[in-house]
């Protein structure tokens, strides 16, 4: 897609500012799940990997596209599942959850 | 822009908004799980919309579809299996591995795009170079970090003679090959040189850091991947990659600081401390 540079930079800068603001006072127990959750979100790279399969040509092109798609899907699927498993542990121990939240 | 494409762009926007809300919900233990599910749903919508876009445009060849489906199947199966079978205690290193493949994907897609594009602009080669650099550093760095946590690589800081000199050389290679990439619009050798040098740097960056500091390092590398993904968005001209990448890059940086503060450590101390002691100990 044709995207002019000014728009792209504007979106980037605003995205960075939102990213700074969206994390506030996080209890220490949530640090790892939050890291894992953010890790899953950058799995959005899978969309880029899917799009480049449309331009891929030749053995090297297809190989790169295959690796990028496989890596991207591993990041997304694995990332969300493992984050959900981590957060499930919080549900299992409500006492610890209350203590860390305050 | 066709109607289908317009609808898909709005879906991408909705997904980006849900990522922000999802990440915000993850700040509190009560809403964290819902936040993650919202973010996962948004990702599913984004992937589905991309598939529809590829079908609607019809630009993709049969081989392309096979490659796409095979990659999706292999990646999803590996991710799902690892995420479900891993021990609770081994989760941080698995997150590090998922972070590694994310960075790797960002670097590889830039190489592929610049290699195949008919005309390459400076506004693609500069973010492309940064994408390859940051993505490859994250890939190898995260693998080393995961290896340290898993005990495959000794957790103690590993220092070797001339580490600082090697890093200086690698830095020069970064600058040189990126300049080459920009001047010679998408030269494959320049990209491979950058890819290899960045991969080596990822290793030399993480090896001198002790195992106890690894969670902070993984969080930092996570922020790096976010930035690499944003750069990939610049290369491809995809807004949703720029938004999500910038979001993770910035929130990851804040989170890294919070984690370092919780351990009473400073980030510079953790990263540069390793380098500083490198030459003295040797």
Determine the strand fraction of chain A and express it as a percent band: under 5%
| Total E-strand runs of chain B | 0
Compute the separation of the termini of chain A in Å.
Answer: 47 Å
SS element count, helices of chain B = 10
What letter string, H or E per element, gives the SSE order of chain B? HHHHHHHHHH
Low confidence ranges of chain A: 96-102
Domain NAD(P) transhydrogenase alpha subunit C-terminal (chain A): 9-91
Transmembrane segments (chain A): 6-24, 36-56, 62-83
Organism (chain A): Stackebrandtia nassauensis (strain DSM 44728 / CIP 108903 / NRRL B-16338 / NBRC 102104 / LLR-40K-21)
Pfam families (chain A): PNTB_4TM (PF12769)
Could you please describe the fold and organization of this structure?
- The complex is a heterodimer of chains A (102) and B (282).
- Chain A is an all-alpha fold and 102 residues long.
- Chain A has a domain at 44-89.
- Chain A is built from 5 helices and no strands.
- Chain A has helices at residues 5-22, 31-41, 45-52, 58-92, 94-101.
- Chain B is an all-alpha fold and 282 residues long.
- In chain B, 82% of the residues lie in helices and 0% in strands.
- In chain B, helix 6 packs antiparallel against helix 7.
- Chain B is globular.
- The termini of chain B are far apart.
């Amino acid at each position: 897609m044709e995207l002019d540079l000014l728009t792209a930079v504007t979106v980037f800068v605003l995205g960075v500012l939102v990213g700074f603001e969206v994390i506030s006072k996080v209890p220490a127990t949530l640090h790892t799940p939050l890291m894992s959750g953010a890790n899953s979100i950058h799995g959005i790279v899978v969309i880029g990997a899917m799009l480049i399969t449309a331009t891929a040509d030749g053995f090297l092109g297809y190989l790169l596209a295959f690796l990028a798609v496989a890596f991207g899907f591993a990041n997304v699927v694995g990332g969300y599942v493992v984050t959900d498993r981590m957060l499930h542990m919080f549900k299992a121990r409500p006492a610890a959850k209350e203590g860390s939240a305050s | 822009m066709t109607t289908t494409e317009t609808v898909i762009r709005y879906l991408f926007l909705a997904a980006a908004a849900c990522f922000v809300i999802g990440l915000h919900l993850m700040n509190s233990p009560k809403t964290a799980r819902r936040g993650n599910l919202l973010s996962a749903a948004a990702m599913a919508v984004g992937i589905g919309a991309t598939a529809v876009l590829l079908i609607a445009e019809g630009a993709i060849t049969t081989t392309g579809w096979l490659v796409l489906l095979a990659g999706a199947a292999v990646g999803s199966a590996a991710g799902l299996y690892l995420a479900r079978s891993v021990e609770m205690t081994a989760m941080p290193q698995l997150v590090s591995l998922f972070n590694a493949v994310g960075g790797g994907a960002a670097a590889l897609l830039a190489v592929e795009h610049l290699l195949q594009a008919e005309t390459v602009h400076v506004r693609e080669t500069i973010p492309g170079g940064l994408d390859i650099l940051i993505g490859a550093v994250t890939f190898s760095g995260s693998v080393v970090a995961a290896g340290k946590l898993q005990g495959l690589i000794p957790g103690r800081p590993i220092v070797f003679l001339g580490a600082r000199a090697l890093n200086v050389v690698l830095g020069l290679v970064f600058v040189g090959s990126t300049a080459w990439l920009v001047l010679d619009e998408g030269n494959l050798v320049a990209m491979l040189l950058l890819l290899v040098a960045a991969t080596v740097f990822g290793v030399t960056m993480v090896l001198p850091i002790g195992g106890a500091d690894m969670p902070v390092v993984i969080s930092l590398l996570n922020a790096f991947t976010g930035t690499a993904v944003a750069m990939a968005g610049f290369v491809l001209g995809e807004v949703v990659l720029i938004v999500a990448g910038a979001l993770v890059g910035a929130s990851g940086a804040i989170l890294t600081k919070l984690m370092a503060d919780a351990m009473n450590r400073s980030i510079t101390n953790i990263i540069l401390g390793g380098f500083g002691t490198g030459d003295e100990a040797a």
